[in-house]
Amino acid sequence: MPKIRLGKGLAAAMALAVIAAVSLVVWLVALEAGKRRALAALDQELSVLARAVEGGIERFRYLPAIVARDRRILDALASPESGSVAAANAYLKAVRKDSHADELFVMALDGDTIAASNHDEPTSFMGQNYRFRPYFQDALATGTGRYYAVGATTGIPGYFLSSAIRDGERVIGVAIVKVDMGGMEQSWIDGRSILGVADADGVIFLTGHAPWKYRPLHALSDEALSDIAVTRKYDGVDLGTASPIFPGTTALPETARVEGEDARRLVRQVRIEPDGWRLLGFASLAPIHASALLMALLAALAGMLVAGAALYMLQRRQLISAKLHAHAELERRVDERTVELNREIEDRRRAEDELREAQASLIQAAKLAALGRMSAAIVHEVSQPLAAMENTLASTGLLASRGESEAVAGKVRAARDLVRRIQRTVKLLKSFARNEPARLEPVDADKAMAIALELAAPRAADDGTAMTLRPPVQPAMVMANATRLEQVILNLIVNALDAVRNMPDAKVELWTETEDDAVRLFVRDNGSGIPEHLRDRIAEPFFTTKVTGEGLGLGLSISRAILDEFGGRMDFETGTGGGCTFRIILPAIGQQSRREAAE
Ligand code: ADP
């Protein structure tokens, strides 16, 4: 049905739209949540790392002041030419070893290095002058100094912590500890986030991301550039030509694209005091995008599963209701057909009843027709004794007047005989013509033969036909209806009489035979016979060879129908010298039935 298909298509389209919308919302929410989580994680990572950076420096905070108080250092500053320098050098080397500081050294008031922990190494600071460094100048001015810079001698960057060396109240030199921060930087190289420490000017000097090393976040002012040049902070690096990481802005963006990467990164920073540094973290958004996409896909998948299940259920419901519908339709048709069949059965029954009735009235008609055809003979049969009786009564009167009482008595007896003869004929006709229902009962076939013969006798006598019934040899009991069986036999006799009419030496012979389980009744004539080409036609209803009015052509067909009712049948043979023998075959009944019939 197109209506249902349209409904399904619409439902599927709507389901897809809902799934797409839900997936989009899931994607956005997951992205936002992912960002928030990443920001929180980044903030936490940065604050931990900032503390680590601070701690890494603060560890050495008091070391220069302690070194400044050592006698060997004071002695070396007091008399640098003496052997005290060697003692100071040995002391500094030992302290470096114990404290894991990068280097320790002592500068005189003119800025010359007079003792150093690396005094015996190729990159020794001995004799070098670092007067230009702020940590030296600050220590002279304020007593302490601190500064990050790339080593002017070694080229190795480090954090310089300094302390003034005093002899009494008088400042006589500066003690410096250089802290190496390279180890920390190394550990950042393969981290998930890109990390970097920028100084107060915004120059990144520590980072795990090599391309950013010694690059300013934003364009540097001339003042800052000249300051960096004077202090030789980043010795050997040309910051004037280094391109800023975020050109054209002084603010830090929330997200940034790192060169060589597709996804943007979240940007956060924390301050590291006291130098005005900033620890920057760039967390990748790629995993957040990936997981948001995954969530959206999962949502879409779940939505499709739910929609699929819903569609399946919908289809199933439709299928079931269609099946129920079909079932109901089938039942309805079966009911209709049952009603039709009942009606047909009823019609058929009625038709059969009508047929039976028609057949019964046909049988009756045929019977009456047979009687009608014999009516002349029957009238003769009645009128003849009546005439005789008239004569007898006339002569009785005469004899009575003469007073011959004995002769009168004889005449009265004769008259009574004549009346009885008439009575018998009338009774025979009455019982034959009776239209009674065909009830089956044991019937003596010989007796039926005798009655039929008697009925036809007047006609035979009229025609001058000799009609004989052979005496029975064996009992011939059959299950039949006496009147109807007589009707069948009479039919055969009338046909036989018709066939032998006007024949010289006309004969009709009747007899019965009982053999095994069958009783056979024979009616033979020496008449015209039946031509071979008519053999199959004679029993057809209304087939007759007789002149109009003499025969209806129903005798044989009705006889067949009657014999069918008794479970019997009929056939005939044509004799070689003409003539016909009709044979009725009926099932014989047993001894008991015979006894009952006798009783
Ligand atoms: P009807 O006697 O009214 O013609 P039947 O059905 O009794 O009708 O017989 C049909 C025909 O069969 C008869 O017209 C006759 O031609 C033929 N027939 C029946 N019995 C005989 C017979 N014994 N000898 C010759 N022909 C016969």
TrEMBL record:
Catalyses which reaction(s): ATP + protein L-histidine = ADP + protein N-phospho-L-histidine
Gene3D superfamilies: 1.10.287.130, 6.10.250.3020, Histidine kinase-like ATPase, C-terminal domain, PAS domain
Keyword line: ATP-binding, Cell membrane, Coiled coil, Kinase, Membrane, Nucleotide-binding, Phosphoprotein, Transferase, Transmembrane, Transmembrane helix, Two-component regulatory system
Name by which UniProt lists this protein: histidine kinase
GO MF terms, alphabetically ordered: ATP binding; phosphorelay sensor kinase activity
One of the Pfam families matching this protein, by short name: HATPase_c
Protein's cellular compartments: Cell membrane
Domain of life where this protein originates: Bacteria
Domain Histidine kinase span(s) in chain numbering: 377-590
GO cellular component terms, semicolon-separated: plasma membrane
